[in-house]
Amino acid sequence: MSPEIASRTTQPRRHGSNAGQPLTRRDGVLKVTGRATYAADNHPEGMLYAVTAVSRIARGRVTALDVATAKAHPGVVEILTPANRPPLAHDPEEKMMPFGFRVEVLQNDGVRYVGQPIALVVAETLEAATEGAALLNPQYEVADARTNLSNGDRFDTASVSIGMPARTAHGDIAAGLAAATHVIEADYATPAQYHNAMEPHAVVAEWDGDRVTLDMPNQAMALSCASYAAYFGIPVENVLIRSPFLGGGFGSKAILNGPQILAILAARMLKRPVKLALTRAQMYGPVGHRGRTWQKLRIGTDSEGRLTALHHHAVCATSSFDEFLEAAANASLPLYESPAILVEHEGLRLDTGTPGPMRAPGEASGSATLEVAMDEAAVACGMDPLEFRLANYAETEPGTGRPFSSKALRECYSEGAKRFGWAGRPLEPRQMRDENGFLVGWGMGTAVFHCPHFPAEARATLRADGTALVETSGADMGQGAWTALAQIAAEALGLDPDQVEFHSGVSSLPDGGIAGGSGHTASAGLALNNAGEDAIAKLAALATANPASPLFGAGNIGVVARSGRLHRLDDDSRSESYVEILARAGQAEVIGTAKAARDQEAAAAHAMFSHGAVFAEVKVDPDLGQIRATRLVGAFAAGRVINPRLVRSQYFGGMIWGASFALHEEAITDHRTGRIMNADLAEYHVPVNADVPSLDAILIEENDPYVNPLGIKGVGEIGITGTVGAVANAVWHATGVRVRRFPIRIEDLIIGRDSSRK
Ligand code: MOS
Predict the structure, then answer these.
(1) Three state DSSP letters for 309-346
(2) Whether the bond into 644 is cis, omega within 30 of 0
(3) How remote is the CA of residue 478 from the centroid of ligand 1, in Å?
């Protein structure tokens, strides 16, 4: 089946504004009926299977591989090792661009983390390739694993995440702390987390001469095409990526990784299509993760409970050979007003795979600790945590003075608190019990997320039958992008969404930008909107210039597109359908194209963030310490809502992820070997249905005319940011125990109050 599935909605026609309609997902039926094809569902003729053999040591080198035995196994076709691996046109130790991480593609016999590919076995069957990999029996020269704060190499860094400054200072921190009535100072730790998308990283690579077709899940198609072209020494237009569906990306499918490059290389070497799909365990290494952090916060407050100083310091883990540091401390920059703010980061090299972007990279880890520290500061001041936030949230962006788009945050606080029933919450902890004797606690946190905008392109074709085809390459990660983007395009074209065929997920289409940073709807959406407007303008030109049209001569007056017709602006009764205009002109179609990017002047003048507030209830068994998040209410202001059903679903996903960060997720390393002990979905805890609290997400209306002409902000990641702290603060309120490492565990509540033992 072709992966280039286009779809239409099968829903009743709606009239009026398309944006704002809670349409169900266009791809929903395809997905629930198993007709949506993922990368590994492809089986081109003559295809071989590739399996990576991976290192079981964290540092050292491979001294021997039993290639002869593995190669003799029936069905094994070829084994790539550093000894025979064909050359690549780009040095994998060289960073190609800020977003291009160094990759491990058998460039030498060195080992830099557990799970690093050390060979690629290619065979006629998956079973033969798997067995071949098992027969390689690697021998190692082992060096000590550096996998902890105590033995990793600390280093100074100028930048964190991708090109963000590592240090930012406003005002005088020492003076601010000296002037404070209360100072809280505490250390916090956040764990390594792995994306664990349901769909594994996979690729089916097929070469035709020096052209290659790659079926792979991909969040950043244009960037990836350029990178693959560089690695394989071919023109960028010779790389075709098909990524119609993703079974979750979360950031890990936005960057290149070694196993996929090796599979593509094997396909070229063997002149046959090759498929590679990582196992769950193999995704704990070469495809990125959220790196560990150790954070210190110092908050000074005056006698009124206003901040006098906010100091956030983070040590952020990365690999021994590349840098991706969680921009954790930067979470303290945009939110709270203080005469002195200092955020700074240091790096820590560990023998792990390189971390990468993962769902609210930076903000998730940083706002988790900031919101707990703010709770501690509120307690120190004897203030209700909400009252404390209201006394301290910034009216303009700290440091720049750029105005936030609105006072939407205040509305998030008040609407969220109202829906949750926050009023009357006792200040002291351990005051509430439910009917079963469980300790009950309420906590809150502020949510904030920036609004990136990626350059994007789109095409809109109005067809003679009055329908349209709109196209942009960006992939749908499962969040419902197809649906929301088609609604935006339909709006611009003056059509119903079910008259719009939407086509994406193929790199040959106009560049849809990156499906990441919660910026996809705004980025690709603006391009689609502009392409639609371009098509309408061309159609209008056909009509207004033709004396036979009722719109003749309206050129200077203008027309408006509505329900498949153009109407004169000065006389609504004079109109003509798209079908009639194209028929008279004898044209089969009119094509609109557009590029869209952020208005840099607007960005320089206005702070651009989504805002929110999250309120959490937890219940704790007083004897066992077992914690359950029972209720989450989030109120979010994120600009214009295109599809409230999908937006609410994104908020729910973010809030569940936040609860997961607070209570469940952690990759645990055996520091003797550097191995992750829970590299599977049985022991790497993510919330199952029984862990998911009652959820409520309130959509606060916000009109931000500056963020982009459509007023759209991101909704994918913000739900995580307020929730982690809210849940942790609720645990304190239930128990009186302040836990400063994540995830919060039973033993943190039972063993005692010193939670900094990691
Ligand atoms: Mo993301 S971490 O922007 O997929």
Answers:
(1) EEEEEEEEEECCCCCCCCCHHHHHCCCECCCCEEEEEE
(2) no
(3) 13
396 CA → ligand 1 middle, Å: 26
What is the pLDDT confidence band of residue 556, given thresholds at 50, 70 and 90? confident
Task: With H, G, I as helix, E, B as strand and everything else as coil, classify residue 368.
Answer: helix
Tell me the whole-structure pTM to 2 decimals: 0.95
Could you read off the pLDDT of 489-517 as tens digits, one per residue?
A: 999 999 999 999 999 999 999 999 999 99
Q: ∠ CA(397), CA(398), CA(400), 5° rounding?
A: 70
Beta bridge partners of 205: 214, 274
End-to-end CA distance of the chain: 50
Nearest ligand 1 atom to alpha carbon 219 = 4
| Residue ID of nearest Cα to ligand 1 atom 4 | 251
Calpha distance 647→697 (Å, rounded) = 9
Give, in order, the Cα–Cα distances in Å from 177 to each of 188, 223, 460: 20, 45, 57
Q: Find tokens 């601010």 and name the residue.
A: 176
Q: What is the pLDDT of residues 363-377, one digit of tens each?
A: 999 999 999 999 999
Instruction: Name residue 404's amino acid.
Output: F
DSSP code at position 384: -
**C-alpha to C-alpha distance for 123 and 51, rounded to whole angstroms:** 8
Cα 359 to ligand 1 centroid, rounded to whole Å: 5
- Cα separation, 193 vs 358, whole angstroms: 9
- Weakest mean pLDDT among 49-58, 95-104, 184-193: 95-104
500 contacts 246 by C-beta, under 8 angstroms: no
Q: Reduce the secondary structure of 121-162 to three states and give it as a string.
A: EEECCHHHHHHHHHCCCCEEEECCCCCCCCCCEEEECCEECC
In angstroms, rounded to a whole number, what is the distance separating the alpha carbons of residues 379 and 371?
A: 12
* 252, pLDDT greater than 90: yes
DSSP 291: P
Looking up tokens 């066992």 gives 624
Atom from ligand 1 closest to the CA of residue 252: 4
Vertex 475 angle, CA 235 and 26, to 5°: 145
- Residue of 206, 326, 397, 717 marked catalytic: 717
Number of other residues whose CB lies within 10 A of the CB of residue 62: 23
Ligand 1 pocket (Cβ < 6 Å) reads 219, 249-251, 254, 357-359, 361, 516-517
pLDDT score recorded for residue 751: 54
For 731, the enclosing helix (H) or strand (E) is helix 718-735
pLDDT in tens, 428-483: 999 999 999 999 999 999 999 999 999 999 999 999 999 999 999 988 888 999 99
CA dist 653 to 47, 193, 650, 656, Å?
37, 16, 5, 5
Cα(147)–Cα(683) distance, rounded to whole angstroms? 20
Using CA atoms of 449, 450, 456, 460 in order, give the dihedral in degrees to the nearest 10. 60
What's the rounded Cα separation, in Å, for the pair 245 and 363?
A: 27
For this structure, is 471 an active site residue? no
Contact 293, 190 (CB under 8 A): yes
Whole-angstrom distance, CA of residue 343 vs CA of residue 332: 7
Helices 578-585 and 520-544, packing angle to 10 deg:
60
Residue type, 390: L
Tokens (6 digits) for 17 = 């504004």
Distance in Å, CA 519 to ligand 1 centroid = 9
